[in-house]
Amino acid sequence: MVLRAKTLELFKSNNMNEIQNKNSKLNISEINDDKEVLNSYPRRLVFELTNLCNLSCVMCGRNDAEFEPTVFDLDWMEKFNSVLKHVEEVTLMGWGEPTVHPKFIKILEKMDKYNVRKYFCTNGMKLDEIKSALFDYNVDLIAVSLDGADAESNSKIRVGSDFDKIINSLKEIVKEKKERNTDKPYINFVFTAMKSNLHQIPDMVRLTKKIGLQELKVVYMTIFNERMLHESLYNSELDISRIFTQATELADKLDISIKLPHIQGEDIAENNYHKKCFVAWRDFFLGSDGYVRPCMSTPMKLFNINDYDDFDKMWNSKEYVDFRKRVNNNNLMDNSCKNCYQSSFANWNNKESFIQIGKEFSPEWKNE
Question: PANTHER family from the xrefs (predicted)?
Answer without folding.
Answer: PQQA PEPTIDE CYCLASE, RADICAL SAM DOMAIN PROTEIN
